Amino acid sequence: MRGITMDSENAFSFKSSKRSPFMLRMVLLFVVMMFGVYIGFLCLKQTTVQMESTNRSIVSGGAVTRCEILNSSPNETIFVHFPQPKTYSRGECACTPVRFFVILSMQRSGSGWFETLLNSHPNISSHGEIFSVKQRKSNISSILMTLDSVYSLEWNNSAAKNECLSAVGFKWMLNQAIMVYHRQIANYFNWKGVSVIFLFRRNLLRKLVSVLANAYDKEAKQLNGTHKSHVHTKEEAEVLASFKPTLNTTSLIPNLSQVERIMVDSLQHFKSARHIILYYEDIINNSRALSNVQEFLKVPVRSLQSRQVKIHARPLSEQIENWADVSTTLRGTQYEHFLNHRNYIP
Ligand SMILES: *[C@@H]1O[C@H](CO)[C@@H](O)[C@H](O)[C@H]1NC(C)=O
Ligand SMILES: *[C@@H]1O[C@H](CO)[C@@H](O)[C@H](O)[C@H]1NC(C)=O
Ligand SMILES: *[C@@H]1O[C@H](CO)[C@@H](O)[C@H](O)[C@H]1NC(C)=O
Ligand SMILES: *[C@@H]1O[C@H](CO)[C@@H](O)[C@H](O)[C@H]1NC(C)=O
Ligand SMILES: *[C@@H]1O[C@H](CO)[C@@H](O)[C@H](O)[C@H]1NC(C)=O
Ligand SMILES: *[C@@H]1O[C@H](CO)[C@@H](O)[C@H](O)[C@H]1NC(C)=O
Ligand SMILES: *[C@@H]1O[C@H](CO)[C@@H](O)[C@H](O)[C@H]1NC(C)=O
Ligand SMILES: *[C@@H]1O[C@H](CO)[C@@H](O)[C@H](O)[C@H]1NC(C)=O
Ligand SMILES: *[C@@H]1O[C@H](CO)[C@@H](O)[C@H](O)[C@H]1NC(C)=O
């Protein structure tokens, strides 16, 4: 009881003191002033952020040009770039925004075909398997330099559309050092705003048949003494598909699960980047798949063309020499559905 009385007394005596209303007012005034300054600061900060997000200055030919980013929310701007190549000028397209992408894929998963489809778009350049060259992937600095070169539009080959393109990238096979340096590369993707297209194949047994047949043709050179991984006519496709590989049933299941593990690991490593997961089977079967990719890359959607012809178009049972053994091996395992997969012809 006593304590309470004393407290209320103290409070009362403080309030009733003669000097305190003045002091209180001063304190209040100070607080209000500080609040005002703070609000002003916030507004200032917000306007600068907004200006940065809608207008970006670029220097071309000594003059500063401002490029306006249209229709994009502030958290989209990290994905929008205005590269200024050193070796040439983007001319009237200097302010055409460019998005960066990479296709992460594995051997015989339709990535070559997919790239020809992308490159049939007037605003997309996909530069192929640039990391098949050993020096470019021999260490992380070499890798990052190569990436910089592609994304600054300095990379030149037949797929380069340079001036007016709005999406630039390449395909990167998961066995080409990317899994070794995944941490640094994921940081690079996030920092540069590189969008990732995972391109996988659902039916890993078909993938394996294609890998083995392609390896065989490297030696056999069935098409008039030349080795071809991709073909443009049905006749050529039939010649290549006439070879039926024999699968080693001892290593079959370990091989399938190894491929699966690499797919899962790559998703784990690069899922922090903006990404889309695409399956070869869906590109063949689903007319929306290619539109989805174009929307993902923010390019005008159009119908994409490729001259490539599917090689192994027959049912699997006609494409594997030891089909009976293979089915016995896979039946009752998690991979059984690969056997039943319906035949599809593009
Ligand atoms: C961006 O630049 C355009 C053209 O230069 C100009 O009209 C517009 O007001 C600028 N926007 C901002 C937010 O500065
Ligand atoms: C910002 O990005 C997140 C995640 O990509 C998205 O869900 C959200 O809609 C975006 N915000 C705006 C304003 O676009
Ligand atoms: C696409 O490329 C064409 C031809 O170069 C160009 O006229 C057009 O402005 C580009 N469109 C976009 C959205 O980049
Ligand atoms: C990285 O690899 C490139 C090309 O093989 C080589 O020239 C360079 O010296 C290497 N750099 C380092 C730091 O090892
Ligand atoms: C790119 O290479 C082509 C030939 O492949 C050549 O005609 C063109 O001038 C080159 N462009 C640049 C900017 O180097
Ligand atoms: C092989 O060469 C002959 C003669 O040049 C040509 O007629 C034939 O079409 C070629 N076959 C294939 C599979 O390329
Ligand atoms: C499994 O992989 C090993 C090494 O990659 C290969 O030599 C072997 O032929 C593969 N087995 C089958 C059934 O393809
Ligand atoms: C099949 O694979 C097993 C395990 O990898 C290997 O020991 C064996 O030699 C292979 N058999 C043939 C015929 O290649
Ligand atoms: C293709 O689509 C049809 C129906 O939408 C489906 O039954 C079939 O299994 C699909 N084929 C593949 C290879 O995904």
Automatic annotation (TrEMBL):
<protein>
    <recommendedName>
        <fullName>Sulfotransferase</fullName>
    </recommendedName>
</protein>
<dbReference type="InterPro" id="IPR052796">
    <property type="entry name" value="Nod_factor_sulfotransferase"/>
</dbReference>
<keyword id="KW-0472">Membrane</keyword>
<keyword id="KW-1133">Transmembrane helix</keyword>
<keyword id="KW-0812">Transmembrane</keyword>
<feature type="transmembrane region" description="Helical">
    <location>
        <begin position="22"/>
        <end position="41"/>
    </location>
</feature>
<dbReference type="InterPro" id="IPR027417">
    <property type="entry name" value="P-loop_NTPase"/>
</dbReference>
